[in-house]
C-alpha cells in the first residue's frame, strides 16, 4: 500500500477516534451539567411551593396549560416539571393539573429519588420536601428522558457541524498530502529513468526540509560512484596503455630465446632480459594498483594514528641494499617523533617511492638525506636537479623528465602526490642548495 493511502486511512481512523472520543466526553459533561442544573431548579421550585399558603387552596389542581393559553402557547413540554402537594396522610392538596395528578405519594422519601408516575413505565427524577410545620409533603418531578433529550440536543448542536466538516477536512488534508508527495514521485521517476553512469545531482526543488538531507546524501553517493567509475576507467585505460610496451618487449625476448637454438650466450642474455622485463611489468602493475588505491576516498575510513619515525626507519632499512649497490649514502635525520592520522600502508608506499626515485635517479657516489621534523618530511639528493619547468610537471601520470637513462613508468611521484592529497599534506619540489632535488611534505 502506498504512503498516500496509508496516510489517508490513518488520518480517517485518527479523526474518527478523536471525534468519537470528543463526542462521548461532551455528552457526558453536558449530561452532568444538565442534571446539576435541573436538580437545582427542582429544589428551588419545591422551596417556593413551601412558601405558599397550603392551608386552604382554592382547588386541588391548577388549570391545564391548554385551558390557560388557547393560542400562542410556545413550544412546551409537559415533562419539563411536575409538582404535587400532599398532606401528611397522603391526601392531595395541590398539583400542576398535568403530570402532577399522577405523582405517587411517598410518606418517607426525603430529597432526590428516582421513580415512576402512576400507571407509567417512564423513569422520573423526584425531589421530596416536608414543610417546616410538618403538615404537608411537596414533590417536584421531572422525566429523565427530558434531561437526556436536552443533553443529546445540546451535544448534537455542537458536534453535528463537525461531523459535516470532517469529510471536507479529510479531503483537504488528503489533497495537501498528495500535493506534498508529488515531488517525491517526480524524484522516483527521475531515479527510474536515470542512466547508470549519470552523475547529475538531483534537484531538491520544493521538497520538504525533512527530505532534502536524503537528496543531498543521494547526490553525494552519485558523485562518489561517478568518481569511482572514472577512477576504474582511468586505471583500465592506463593499464592497457602502459602494459602494451612491456608485454611486447616480453614477447620479443621470448622469440629471442626461441631463436637462440644452440647459442648459449644469446639464450642466457635473452632469459636475463626476459626476467628484467617481467620485473618491470610486475612493478608497473604494482604501481598502477597502488595509485588506484591511493585515489580511493574510502581509504580515509581506515585512518589511525601512525608514528612516522619507525615507519621511516623501516623504509630506509629496506632501501639500504639498493643504495649500497648504487654506491649511494642513505641517511635519516629525525629531530622529532610526530604521530599523524593516516593509512600506514599508503604512507609506507609514499616513503618507499620517494626513496626509490631518489636512489634510481641520483648518480653513483651521491647521498640521499631523509629529514623528519614535527610538521614536515624532506627527501634531498645531490643529483643534477631539474629545471623549474620540469619541476612543475613532476607528479603527472606517466611523465618523466626527458633524457632519463633509467627505466621507469612515471608513476612513482604520482603515487606520492595522491597519497599526500589523501592525507591533506602539501607536496612541493625545489632545488637543493648545492645542486639536487628536494621533495618536501608538510602537514
Automatic annotation (TrEMBL):
Spell out the SMART domains in the cross-references: HATPase_c, HisKA
State the coiled-coil residue ranges.
Answer: none
Q: Which organism is it from?
A: Candidatus Pantoea deserta
- EC number(s) per UniProt? 2.7.13.3
Subcellular compartments = Cell inner membrane
Tell me what reaction this enzyme catalyses.
ATP + protein L-histidine = ADP + protein N-phospho-L-histidine
From the Swiss-Prot or TrEMBL record, give the protein name. Sensor protein QseC
List all membrane-crossing ranges. 159-178
Topology relative to the membrane: Multi-pass membrane protein
Amino acid at each position: 500500500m502506498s504512503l498516500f493511502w496509508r496516510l489517508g486511512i490513518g488520518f480517517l481512523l485518527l479523526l474518527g477516534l478523536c471525534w468519537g472520543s470528543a463526542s462521548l466526553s461532551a455528552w457526558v459533561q453536558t449530561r452532568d451539567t444538565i442534571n446539576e442544573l435541573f436538580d437545582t431548579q427542582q429544589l428551588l421550585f419545591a422551596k417556593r411551593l413551601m412558601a405558599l399558603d397550603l392551608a386552604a387552596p382554592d382547588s386541588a389542581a391548577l388549570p391545564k396549560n391548554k385551558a390557560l393559553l388557547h393560542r400562542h402557547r410556545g413550544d412546551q413540554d409537559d415533562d419539563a416539571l411536575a409538582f404535587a402537594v400532599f398532606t401528611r396522610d397522603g391526601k392531595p392538596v395541590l398539583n400542576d393539573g398535568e403530570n402532577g395528578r399522577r405523582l405517587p405519594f411517598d410518606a418517607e422519601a426525603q430529597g432526590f429519588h428516582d421513580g415512576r408516575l402512576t400507571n407509567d413505565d417512564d423513569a422520573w427524577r423526584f425531589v421530596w420536601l416536608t414543610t417546616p410545620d410538618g403538615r404537608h409533603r411537596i414533590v417536584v418531578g421531572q422525566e429523565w428522558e427530558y434531561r437526556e433529550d436536552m443533553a443529546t440536543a445540546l451535544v448534537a448542536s455542537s458536534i453535528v457541524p463537525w461531523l459535516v466538516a470532517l469529510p471536507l477536512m479529510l479531503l483537504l488534508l488528503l489533497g495537501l498530502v498528495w500535493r506534498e508527495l508529488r515531488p517525491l514521485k517526480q524524484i522516483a521517476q527521475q531515479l527510474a529513468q536515470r542512466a547508470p553512469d549519470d552523475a547529475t545531482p538531483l534537484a531538491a526543488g520544493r521538497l520538504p526540509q525533512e527530505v532534502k538531507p536524503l537528496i543531498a546524501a543521494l547526490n553525494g553517493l552519485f558523485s562518489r560512484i561517478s568518481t569511482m567509475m572514472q577512477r576504474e576507467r582511468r586505471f583500465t585505460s592506463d593499464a592497457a596503455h602502459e602494459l602494451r610496451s612491456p608485454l611486447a618487449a616480453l614477447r620479443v625476448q621470448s622469440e629471442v630465446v626461441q631463436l637462440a637454438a644452440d647459442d648459449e650466450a644469446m639464450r642466457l642474455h635473452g632469459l636475463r632480459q626476459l626476467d628484467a622485463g617481467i620485473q618491470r611489468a610486475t612493478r608497473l602493475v604494482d604501481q598502477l594498483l597502488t595509485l588506484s588505491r591511493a585515489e580511493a576516498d574510502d581509504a580515509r575510513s581506515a585512518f589511525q594514528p601512525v608514528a612516522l619515525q619507525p615507519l621511516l626507519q623501516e623504509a630506509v632499512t629496506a632501501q639500504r641494499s639498493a643504495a649500497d649497490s648504487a654506491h649511494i649514502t642513505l641517511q635519516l635525520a629525525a629531530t622529532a617523533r610526530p604521530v599523524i592520522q593516516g593509512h600506514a600502508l599508503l604512507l609506507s608506499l609514499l616513503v618507499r617511492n620517494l626513496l626509490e626515485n631518489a636512489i634510481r635517479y641520483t648518480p653513483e657516489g651521491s647521498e640521499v638525506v631523509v629529514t623528519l621534523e614535527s610538521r614536515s618530511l624532506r627527501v634531498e639528493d645531490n643529483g643534477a636537479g631539474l629545471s623549474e619547468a620540469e619541476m612543475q610537471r613532476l607528479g603527472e601520470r606517466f611523465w618523466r623528465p626527458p633524457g632519463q637513462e633509467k627505466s621507469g613508468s612515471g608513476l612513482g611521484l604520482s603515487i606520492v602526490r595522491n597519497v599526500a592529497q589523501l592525507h591533506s599534506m602539501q607536496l612541493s619540489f625545489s632545488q637543493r642548495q648545492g645542486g639536487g632535488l628536494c621533495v618536501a611534505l608538510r602537514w
